[in-house]
Design goal:
homodimer, 139 residues, Multidrug-efflux Transporter Regulator, Chain: A, Domain 2, two-stranded antiparallel ribbon, elongated, DNA-binding
DNA sequence: CGTTACATTTACGTCAACGTCAGGCCCTCT
DNA sequence: AGAGGGCCTGACGTTGACGTAAATGTAACG
């Protein structure tokens, strides 16, 4: 009576197991499937996520962290398992996208830093004001 | 016959003058009015932006740079000219919001930096791969 | 057989800050 | 009178990544 509950230790995961493993919602997985980012196999109507899906999802989430859009990610993923021969060219392409994204991120960071500096300056000004007003209203 | 074209050097600006002065579109100004961020006076159906509107818009744009939502900005602006007496309390409130926003920005920057670092690492890995593949395919 | 507990599909809703028409008024120059 | 220009209102469209609701299925437990 081995408690073979979910997917019986096979190397496929149910949607719930997948969600728990990656901290995403079922909606997200279905959404990704619809967007052709994942291709779970079907047992009747249910989805079973393979090792390949898990690898892809890991890459998807990593890509998201870097700010790539799902569409970008899909293209990269597609490229890699469409023709597993043009390795160099593919890596090249990936590399270019990464470089572009990287400079975007750095620029964004710089703008953010500028804004932070400015906001701090404004706040320093605000502190003066507060002090002044406090003196004025002192008992 | 002074060529009194737009608003005749008075201290009100037409929508176009306002747009040119602040580099925004008419749509934006109308939108801000609808959102109760600006209150241009009406000459018939046309808008005339006063000095007060200009001051507010300046603050709005500054706020946006800091990542405040229009709704946040509206509340702050409202607060300031609803009761022009609670200066200290208002400044206090503004200060709190600014502090909160500041830490959000700093966190965001940190996450971005982390992602940048990670992406760079990935890219270094990619370079190795490219080099390896290049050797393999060398003539 | 009934209930519980997930699963599925379909499709509309969300959020922000505007963009983009479409249609119409009013004034001015020619 | 016609053409042109600027301004107006009103309302739908955009973008991305899902959330959420409704109706249905189906598998297993008891």
């Amino acid at each position: 009576m081995t408690p073979a509950k979910p997917s019986d230790t096979a190397d496929v995961l149910t949607i719930r197991e997948m969600c728990d493993a990656f901290e995403v919602t079922p909606r997200t997985l279905r959404f990704y499937e619809q967007k052709e980012l994942l291709f779970p196999i079907r047992q009747g109507t249910r989805r079973l996520f393979t090792r390949r899906d898990r690898a892809r999802l890991k890459l998807i989430l990593r890509g998201k962290r870097f700010g790539f859009s799902l569409e970008d990610i899909r293209q990269l993923l597609d490229m890699y398992d469409r023709d597993p021969g043009q390795q160099a060219a593919q890596l090249q392409r990936t590399y270019e996208l990464a470089r572009a994204r990287l400079s975007e991120m750095e620029q964004q960071r710089d703008e953010l830093n500028e804004a932070i500096t400015d906001l701090k300056a404004q706040m320093a000004w605000g502190e003066e004001m507060l002090a002044t007003l406090a003196k004025g209203n002192a008992t």
